Amino acid sequence: MRIACLGGGPAGLYFAISMKLHDPSHEIVVLERNRPDDTFGWGVVLSDETLDNLAANDTVSAARIREHFAYWDDIAVIHDGVKTVSTGHGFCGIGRHKLLVLLQQRARELGIELRFESDIPEARIDELSREFDLVLAADGLNSRTRQHYASHFQPDIDVRACKFVWLGTHQTFNDAFTFIFEKTEHGWVWAHAYQFDADTATFIVECSEATWQAFGFGEMSQQESIAVCERIFARHLGGHALMTNAHHIRGSAWINFPRVLCERWSVDNVVLMGDAAATAHFSIGSGTKLALESAIALAAYLHSEPDMASAFSRYEEERRTEVLRLQSAARNSTEWFEQVERYLDLDPVQFNYSLLTRSQRISHENLRLRDPAWLESAERWFQRQAGNPESDRAPMFAPFTLRGMTLANRIVVSPMAQYKAVDGRPTDWHFVHYAERAKGGAGLVYIEMTCVSPEGRITPGCPGFYAPEHEVAWKQLCDFVHAETPAKLCAQIGHSGPKGSTQLGWQEMDAPLAEGNWPILAASAVPWSERNQVPKAMDRADMDRIREEFVAAATMADRAGFDMIEVHAAHGYLLSSFITPLTNRREDEYGGSLENRMRYPMEVIRAVRQAWPAHKPLSVRISANDWVGDEGVTPDEAVAIARLLQATEVDIVDVSAGQTSTRARPVYGRMFQTPFSDRIRNETGIATMAVGNIYQADHVNSILMAGRADLVCLARPHLADPYWTLHAAAGLGDSQCDWPQPYGPGRDQLQRLAERGEGWT
User: Fold this and answer.
1) NADH:flavin oxidoreductase/NADH oxidase N-terminal domain location, by residue (predicted)?
2) Which helix (H) or strand (E) holds 266?
3) Which of 288, 372, 329 is nearest to 100 (CA)?
């Protein structure tokens, strides 16, 4: 094959090398617009895994690269005058210039033609595709090839919020990959610093747009900008200067990072690679890794598949999965730095933990493998904050107090509808279901949304708090749980609103009943879907009546013996129908602005708080994102909602999301709703509960230790395993959980199995 590689960076050079290794008869030319000694970055970071992949592909270049690596194992975080160091992270860095020189040398040895100062204008790309059998477009972040075929590649470019500038220094930071956070007269500025050769380190300076504007960096020359950065970080630079190698850029050289992802990566015989196809934010250091491993993969497929189209298809399928995985981690990391000012008041221990776990690639137990001593000290710190100074247990087993209620641990059994009630009365099913989960070790057990009136039920199988027999049944449960377990019980009360009079959950969710429908109410006459009945828009009399029904339900829950109450104002039910503009079309004082939309829910919440005993906590569940963009409730509005709740003596916010509209397009994943809890907790100071696809003890401990929530709710895991908490404790080697006395032999066997690594079945 005759091959043209557009771009002489790591992607283009290493693809050319890999192709030659597969078949020396290939004629390959690398076209690079810069000179061979030009480079506009400083150091790059690779993992041990990537080094092993390079060695398997080409032992010669891998050995040469290894000779020039700077290795370090520690991460240092300097924040609030405290330097926190953790170990076991295993990084290696090399100068970008040195890497390119080594790859250029290897390419020449293999007979690859390198043409420098060969600037390929966009108009010539079609000509090259006719002249060569294959054109590899590794022409970088501002790829002309991607731009030329934009209608086919369909690039999605997301320009991120922070400003950064890529600098170098002879202060080597040779003891650790170092993050430095400095508070200035214009706001916080931070640096990512790491050594990449014997006497040089990369030094990336980053800040918010507001801070950048306040400093006036945009109007400065590069040297003026560098002088300000040297002043900010003077006590960390040890007298060394900061340096730039971006003299070709006019102005201060600060930029915003663009996240690039293309819908397609090839057209005819032209294929994208490296930053031309996809980018990963520098805060996880994976751009060069992606490029080198993509080069290996494409070269292999071009020799294993029957034709070029098949090779391109396999390449894109395999590498897209890896790119999306890394971009997901990079997005988490990027957003953490974009929002870092909300975390800078955290204790240095928790701040360090939050930084280390920001991408979700490093979890709690992974940190234990890397640096058990540091993690154990952090766990002891967490327990001290919880009032447990002698404990070294994992965060999930720290106590938590709200008003007069103290939970034995931070695990919550989420409310999960059972659809087993008869005329609103809980049955033996409910007693067994909730009693089992209370025996299973969780600190707090919710009952499902329990409705304040017959018309407020979601389905005919939903339980209620509106008849004397309901109170009798719920009191039986409360008495048993309090007598036999350390668990506390929370009653979630709500009204179905526009989602009422629907089928049982295992029939057709949110679909109207085939017969026997009852009239429903909502903020406005907006049906849940085209199939659902149109609700009556509530008038003042309806509002007064339903507010009093909430109060009566709360009073009944107190008499039954519940320790805590939650008002359900999420998921499109009645109170939620007021909060979200998707269903609130009112033109009176209860519609329009967020303050108006919150007016009636706040009336209900205040009335419940007044009726509910002062020593018992009150929670409110909200949907923090309608998942429809600015047309619905946004995460910004969720913070404002939480502030209103905080001012109304609400003790904790149960932070869910979505389920308010059939138009919602949620972004699913592990712990996918936790960021909303994180933001509310750390911007308002109110306690929060995190929910949503949380299913491992590792998830729970990571969320708590990073300060992303105060309590963690698990739903489906508790359906599969009522004893999830006790089993998780055994898996962590924790033997301090309270088991029911008759179950002692089972506890002992489980702990022995866990010690042998056998688990349970």
Assistant:
1) 396-732
2) strand 266-267
3) 288
> How many CB atoms within 10 Å of residue 221?
12
CA-CA distance, 312 to 597, in Å (whole number)? 52
Q: Which of 301, 315, 434, 573 is catalytic?
A: 573
pLDDT in the model for residue 248? 61
Per residue in 674-697, pLDDT tens? 999 999 999 999 999 999 999 999
Tell me the domain boundaries of the chain. 2-338, 394-720, 730-760
Cα of 60 vs its chain's centroid, Å? 40
Cβ proximity of 273 and 8 under 8 Å? no
Fold of 394-720: TIM Barrel (3.20.20)
User: Dihedral of CA 144/147/153/159: which sign?
Assistant: positive
Helix (H, G, I), strand (E, B), or coil: what is residue 138? Answer: coil
Euclidean distance between CA atoms 573 and 560, whole angstroms: 25
42/200 Cα distance (integer angstroms):
9
- How far is Cα 683 from Cα 686, in angstroms, rounded to an integer? 8
Q: What is the pLDDT of residue 249?
A: 63
Contact 688, 709 (CB under 8 A): yes
CA-to-CA dists, residue 679 to 204, 283, 335, 343, 690, angstroms: 26, 20, 11, 9, 11
| Cα dihedral across residues 143, 147, 151, 152: positive or negative | negative
DSSP 739: P
Closest to 673 in 3D by CA, of 641, 640, 637, 703: 703
3-class secondary structure, 299: helix
Alpha helices in 92-165 (DSSP H): 96-109, 125-131, 144-148, 150-153
pLDDT attached to residue 38: 76
Q: Would you tell me how many other CB atoms lie within 10 Å of the CB of residue 421?
A: 24
Q: For residue 194, indicate whether it is catalytic.
A: no
Helix, strand, coil fractions of the chain, as percent rounded to 5: 40, 20, 40
pLDDT digits (tens, 9 = 90+) for 64-112: 999 998 888 999 999 988 999 999 988 888 999 999 999 999 999 999 9
pLDDT at position 171, please?
A: 97
**CA angle (744 as vertex; 743, 750 as ends), nearest 5:** 95
Q: Which of 161, 386, 333 is nearest to 258 (CA)?
A: 161
Question: Which of 483, 486, 494 has its CA nearest to residue 453?
Answer: 494
Would you say 653 and 688 are in contact if contact means Cβ atoms under 8 Å apart? Answer: yes
- Say how far apart CA 707 and CA 354 lie, in whole Å: 7
For tokens 């003299």, name the residue: 247
pLDDT of residue 32: 96
244 residue type, one letter: T
DSSP code per residue over 441-494 = T-SEEEPPPEESSGGG-SSTT--BSSSHHHHHHHHHHHHHHHHH-S-EEEEEEE
DSSP designation for 740: P
Looking at residue 246, what is its pLDDT?
77
> How does DSSP classify residue 220?
S
Q: Are 315 and 347 in contact (CB under 8 A)?
A: no
Q: Which CATH number fits domain 2-338: 3.90.230.10, 3.50.50.60, 1.10.760.10, 3.40.190.150?
A: 3.50.50.60
For 373, residues 6+ apart whose C-beta sits below 8 A from its C-beta are none
Alpha-carbon Rg of the chain, whole angstroms? 30
110's CB contacts (< 8 A; 6+ apart) are 16, 17, 20, 21, 24
Instruction: Give the C-alpha separation, 196 to 98, whole Å.
Output: 10
Positions of the chain with pLDDT lower than 50, given as ranges:
none
pTM over 0.85: yes
Helix (H, G, I), strand (E, B) or coil at 329: helix
The encoded tokens of residue 470 equal 């309901």
- Distance, in Å, from the CA atom of 590 to the CA atom of 599, rounded to the nearest integer, reads 6
